[in-house]
């Protein structure tokens, strides 16, 4: 009896123990909150409800949320009543709830977000498994549902979301017929130059997306002038680290500026484009057509253009045509491709002035050149992409064929330390085919936070050229300054270069701690990057002899191959919370540089090893403010022209000889930034600090050597040295006034460069200082738009070997751009620009450029006729300065700036519901 009792007690205890073990099982309930364009909504409130019990959490920056639910059983019988305890993983408390005793407990999820209508869903919890995914919950914009509400909420013009600044289009003025570029001009921090290029806080905007998806060619400049502003709901300026980083959450490198247009409901399809033809004085012409069919994921576009109105250096004639397509195959697979052909012809007259410092003094080189260049380029690319909840796959292939023919005649005169004249006639043919491909993939595993990503890129780039040079050189006696010899030399240079590269990357991310905890996320990233570049170069020099025949000069010819490989191994720790994100780690990078010369036994073999920390910190104390810090390091191989030890005589006044003993350089870069946004009035403040230090940088060593006539000539060689660094800062502040009718912007920056070069084997320090300051005012009234600005730029440069004072350039620039709406179908504009230059060695006036136009629209603004005048005073010129090693170069180029143009334009736009809801929409505040 006692044994039976003991057995019964053991059986009951075992049953209880089994139930207790079952009580420790968990299920993670997770989901995502998105808007109507499938973009995640951060900060939305999510409630899990059953009966009278409720749990709360909020979504993260990507719109994700989760609840961690513990299953328990409260009875020992076979008809046990089940209870479920749940905790919200983003809440610090240990709240719990109990659901009815059923096999599939029912719960409700209620979601609310600022600016969106609430949404809810009911579901049954699974009785097995450790994770359950809720289908994406879509919140509709509340502003689209308030047509009958008399009192409307105050519109928030902008908000800051980690890597994104979002502007509400409803807060700005949109007139009937405006395109997106007119809307962008009103946004603080956004600038569009006269050529249509867009910058945000000084950085070029390189990519366009619509509703979070790639859009045709993703060319910002091309499509902001075609898409109507009336279909846009929000504009997002994003610091984009790439699609793979968005999928894995692992950021690396410097971000690019991307523009994402969030459209109004049901506006993700339509037909748009334009057709225009123009003719004017000075034989100016411009004709083109753009036509695009857009059906959300299906996109087809064609374009063609012929023009000579490009106001860049020289006289330009260009023609281009092409097409693009994008389509979705199945649920997740997207394909895209485009082709473009371009033909250019440029006639250029240029005046140059070069100062070169050496140990004996300064060499001054004044030159005048005339050139004509004709080129034809074919470019294509194709890509595929597949993204689902667990996998990311992307592949691209790009190719180009570039052919060009150029003729140039240059007359130069050297004075100072060297007295020499050179007359050079040059004819060259260039053929350059290129092919590149890349493939990337990533995968989320069952364990939350565990990802693996891999990438592969390969390229084959060829550049072959033949140059026929005729040189006439006048040599002068260094003592008397008299001409002692007039030398003729005709040489044929055959250059063949080929570069092949392969890169492979693998990154493994492993979460640490409790992966179900959304308050704090920790993880370790292990990365490996292999990079290999192989270069083969051939320089064959042929000189015409007395018999008028070309013969090979072996001492000036060379065939050379080199390779540079690196293995970068990194270990990184990541810590992520709502307000603080940081990563810290270390990378080791062994590298090998090898080279060989045809016909020579000696070979190059250089090894190196660099260790550098990697750090990134993002601190977000409030939704209005962010602080960021990024440090990185990378190595760079010498260029093949810097390695080959054979004289390059294409410039007889400065022969270049490479150094096969060069090592790879290593860059250390640190960036600090601060950004503050006031959603209430739209003001923005951005501060940035940056610095770079270079180890073993490849620099030039220009030496003066005696020739057979006892005259001096320059010869440039290369060596490694340290001591090169630069640091700088810049700021930007924008303040809207009177409900965004006015906007004041102040910006500026300071940069200091410390450069090391050599002259006659003597170390030469170059110290450069650049200071810029700008002030602009934008005014946006119902009948008038004005953008006026003033800027000042100060640049100084001094060399330690130079005996003269520092070379200082100062430039004042004043701009005004105004547009007047005279009638609903009639507008006019005026532009003016005044430049004041001080300190340039090349003489030139300070130009005042004045232009204007009158435009008449018809057929409900579908068509327009426009008369415009450019540079009415004919004062345009093109002057610029560049600094390299121990030389300063100034140049001025010809350009046609004064002409009149008459244009006829037809807009091709057809969107559901029209592009606008009225003749004009004034932003509310």
TrEMBL record:
Claim: Signal is one of the keywords in the record: yes
Where do the Outer membrane protein beta-barrel domain residues begin and end?
Answer: 444-906
Annotated InterPro entries: CarboxyPept-like_regulatory, OMP_b-brl_3
What SUPFAM superfamilies does the record tag this protein with? Carboxypeptidase regulatory domain-like, Porins
Domain of life the protein comes from: Bacteria
Q: What keywords tag this UniProt record?
A: Signal
Q: Where is the signal peptide?
A: 1-23
The record's section on Pfam families has: OMP_b-brl_3
Manganese among keywords: no
Q: What is this protein called?
A: Outer membrane protein beta-barrel family protein
The organism encoding this protein is Pedobacter westerhofensis
Q: What is the lineage of its organism?
A: Bacteria, Pseudomonadati, Bacteroidota, Sphingobacteriia, Sphingobacteriales
């Amino acid at each position: 009896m006692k044994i039976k009792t003991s057995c019964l007690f053991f059986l009951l205890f075992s049953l209880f123990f089994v139930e207790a073990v079952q009580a420790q099982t968990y299920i993670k309930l997770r989901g995502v909150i998105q808007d109507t364009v499938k973009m995640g909504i951060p900060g939305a409130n999510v409630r899990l409800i059953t009966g009278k019990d409720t749990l709360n959490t909020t979504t993260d920056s990507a719109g994700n949320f989760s609840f961690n639910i513990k299953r328990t059983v409260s009875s020992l019988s076979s008809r046990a009543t089940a209870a479920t305890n749940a905790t919200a993983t983003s809440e610090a408390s240990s709240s719990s709830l109990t659901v009815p005793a059923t096999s599939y407990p029912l719960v409700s999820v209620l979601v609310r977000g600022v600016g969106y209508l609430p949404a809810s869903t009911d579901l049954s919890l699974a009785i097995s498994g450790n994770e359950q995914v809720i289908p994406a919950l879509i919140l509709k914009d509340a502003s689209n549902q308030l047509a009958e509400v008399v009192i409307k909420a105050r519109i928030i013009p902008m908000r800051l979301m980690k890597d994104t600044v979002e502007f509400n289009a409803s807060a700005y003025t949109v007139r009937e017929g405006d395109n997106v570029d007119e809307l962008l001009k009103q946004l603080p921090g956004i600038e569009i130059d006269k050529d249509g290029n867009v910058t945000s806080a000084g950085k070029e905007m390189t990519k366009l997306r619509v509703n979070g998806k790639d859009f045709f060619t993703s060319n910002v400049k091309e499509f902001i002038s075609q898409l109507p502003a009336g279909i846009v709901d929000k504009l997002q300026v994003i610091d984009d680290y790439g699609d793979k980083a968005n999928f894995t959450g692992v950021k690396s490198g410097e971000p690019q500026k991307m523009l994402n247009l969030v459209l109004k409901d049901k506006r993700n399809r339509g037909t748009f484009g334009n057709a225009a033809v123009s003719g004017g004085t000075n034989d100016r012409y411009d004709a083109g057509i753009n036509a695009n069919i857009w059906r959300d994921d299906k996109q087809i576009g064609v374009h063609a253009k012929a023009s000579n109105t490009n106001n860049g250096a020289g006289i330009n004639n260009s023609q281009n045509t092409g097409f693009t397509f994008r389509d979705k195959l199945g649920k997740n697979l997207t394909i895209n491709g485009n082709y473009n052909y371009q033909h250019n012809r440029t006639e250029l007259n240029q005046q140059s002035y070069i100062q070169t410092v050496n140990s004996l003094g300064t060499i001054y080189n004044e030159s005048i050149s005339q050139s004509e260049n004709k080129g034809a380029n074919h470019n294509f690319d194709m890509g595929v992409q597949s993204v689902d909840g667990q996998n990311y796959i992307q592949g691209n292939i790009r190719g180009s064929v570039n052919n060009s023919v150029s003729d140039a005649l240059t007359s130069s005169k050297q004075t100072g330390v060297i007295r020499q004249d050179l007359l050079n006639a040059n004819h060259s043919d260039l053929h350059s085919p290129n092919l590149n491909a890349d493939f990337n993939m990533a995968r989320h595993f069952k364990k939350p936070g565990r990802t693996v990503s891999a990438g592969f890129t390969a390229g084959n780039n060829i550049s072959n050229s033949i140059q026929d040079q005729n040189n006439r050189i006048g040599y002068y006696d260094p003592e008397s300054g008299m001409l002692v010899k007039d030398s003729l030399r005709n040489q044929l240079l055959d250059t063949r270069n080929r570069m092949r590269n392969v890169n492979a990357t693998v990154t493994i991310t492993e979460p640490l701690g409790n992966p179900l905890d959304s308050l704090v996320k920790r993880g370790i990233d292990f990365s490996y990057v292999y990079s290999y570049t192989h270069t083969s170069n051939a320089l064959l020099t042929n000189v015409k002899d007395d018999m008028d025949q070309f013969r090979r000069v072996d001492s000036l010819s060379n065939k050379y191959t080199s390779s540079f490989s690196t293995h970068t191994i990194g270990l990184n720790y990541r810590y992520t919370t709502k307000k603080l994100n940081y990563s810290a780690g270390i990378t080791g990078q062994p590298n090998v540089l090898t080279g060989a010369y045809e016909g020579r036994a000696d070979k190059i073999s250089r090894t190196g090893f660099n260790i550098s920390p990697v750090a990134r910190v993002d601190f977000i104390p409030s939704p209005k403010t962010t602080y960021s810090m990024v440090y990185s390091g990378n190595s760079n191989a010498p260029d093949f022209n810097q390695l080959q030890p054979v004289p390059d005589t294409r410039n007889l006044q400065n022969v270049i000889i490479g150094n096969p003993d060069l090592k790879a350089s290593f860059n250390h870069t640190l960036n600090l930034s601060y950004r503050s946004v006031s959603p209430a009035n739209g003001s923005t403040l951005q501060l940035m600090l940056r610095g770079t230090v270079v180890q073993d940088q490849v620099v030039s060593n220009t030496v003066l050597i005696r020739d057979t006539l006892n005259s001096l000539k320059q010869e440039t060689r290369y060596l490694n040295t340290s001591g090169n660094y630069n640091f700088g800062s810049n700021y930007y502040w924008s303040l809207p006034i009177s409900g965004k009718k006015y906007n004041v912007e102040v910006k500026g920056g300071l940069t200091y460069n410390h450069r090391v070069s050599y002259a006659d084997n003597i170390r030469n320090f170059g110290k450069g200082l650049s200071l810029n300051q700008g002030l602009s005012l934008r005014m946006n009234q119902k009948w008038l738009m004005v953008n006026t600005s003033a800027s000042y730029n100060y640049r100084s440069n001094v060399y330690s070997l130079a005996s003269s004072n520092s070379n200082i350039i100062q430039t004042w620039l004043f701009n005004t751009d105004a547009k007047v709406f005279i009638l609903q179908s009639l507008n006019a504009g005026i532009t003016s620009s005044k430049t004041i230059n001080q300190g340039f060695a090349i003489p030139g006036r300070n130009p005042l450029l004045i232009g204007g136009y009158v435009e008449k629209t018809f057929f409900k603004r579908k068509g327009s006729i426009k008369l415009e005048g450019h540079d009415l005073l004919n004062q345009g010129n093109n002057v610029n300065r560049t600094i390299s090693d121990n030389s300063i170069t100034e140049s001025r180029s010809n350009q046609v700036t004064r002409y009149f143009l008459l244009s006829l334009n037809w807009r091709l736009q057809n969107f559901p519901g029209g592009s606008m809801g009225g003749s004009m929409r004034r932003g509310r505040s």
